[in-house]
Amino acid sequence: MTGTVINVTSGSQAVLTLGTTQAMAAPGGTNGLVVPLMQDVTVSASTGSTRYSTLDSTASSAFTTVNENSVSLNMLVDGATFFGDGANASNDIANKGLLQTSKEKTEINFSVAFNEGNTTGEYYVEGTGFISGLTPTASIDAAVWVSPMEIIVNGELTRVIVS
Amino acid sequence: MSVIRDSLITQLTTNLSGSNVSVSSELPFTSGGEELYNKNMKTLYVDEEQIDQETLYEVLDRNNVALNTSTLNAYVTLDAKTQLSDINSIIANVLSAKSVITNTITSESDYETDMDLDKITYTFAFRFDKTV
Questions:
Q1: What CA–CA distance (Å, rounded) separates B10 from B8?
Q2: Which of A17, A144, A147 would best serve as a mutation to test chain B binding (most B beta carbons within 10 A)?
Q3: How many angstroms separate the Cα of A93 from the Cα of each of A11, A14, A137, A144, B60?
Q4: Per-residue pLDDT tens over the stretch B95-110
Q5: Neighbour count for residue B111 (Cβ, 10 Å)
Q6: pTM for this predicted structure
Q7: What confidence score (pLDDT) does residue A9 get?
Q8: Torsion of CA A24, A26, A28, A32, to 10 degrees
Q9: Which residue from A86, A133, B54, B106 could staple onto B129, CB 3.0 to 4.6 Å apart?
């Protein structure tokens, strides 16, 4: 059987959108803030587990605990996205920017489109969380500002298949 | 027409005013089998800008950031038997003309010499790195 890869070569795939509501944060959502200039994005759906040993077994056993989910990425810093455009009255994240939203610990809605996420059968994951991990760095060799970012997911990631 | 070349020629003209070397805005083409800087000694000629581009950052939305490296050479031929009295100042002023090009990551200049019979040719190299 041959699998079908999800490629990211079109420039409109692997897109992170932030919004104050889930509808706004959906791929292509009105007033959603699409985080530009991402170098990479990682969706981490990590199942917690605890291992234990018993005298009657030569291998350890495990049981699952709560999931710890996050979205992490590296990006080139876009001024309006990082510090806010000061204009978007509908989306406070776009208005104030990533830094201020992180400082204020505002819970945000997000989606990560695996493909464009707006056509029937395409995939994206969504959830809510808090922006963290902004560490903008510049050097003369790097030539531009770059920063990692993490969304600490509050609760579960939700799988969406566009219908 | 190269903006960097034009700016460099303007700055070189300023820096070398009053010296024994003048600056031409012509390209150092070959005329009658001889380069202009060999034919017209004590005249500095700036060659065309060469641009080399490489991708500095690839991003998922394809708005990649590239690094442009511009290289320009300038040539002047002098009498090797009798060095100009102000040759040290001329060299310093040519090399320092790089500062007119702004908003660069790297701005470098150096030179080398080549002697042929009683002529010495100074080849100056300017390199500028910019993100685009």
A1: 5
A2: A144
A3: 23, 20, 22, 23, 21
A4: 999 999 999 999 999 9
A5: 15
A6: 0.82
A7: 78
A8: 40
A9: B106
Q: Provide the strand spans (E) within A15-157.
A: 15-19, 33-34, 38-52, 61-76, 107-113, 123-132, 146-153
8 A C-beta contact, residue B129 and residue B68 = yes
- CB-CB under 8 Å, B63 with A37: yes
pLDDT of residue A37: 96
| Domain that residue B103 falls in | 3-131
Predicted confidence band at A12 (pLDDT cuts at 50, 70, 90)? confident
Q: Domains for chain A: give ranges and CATH numbers.
A: 15-161 (2.40.30)
- Tokens read off for B73: 């050479």
CATH of the domain at B36: 3.30.70
Total structural domains in chain B?
1
**B37 close to B47: Cβ distance less than 8 angstroms:** no
pLDDT tens digits along B60-71: 999 999 999 999
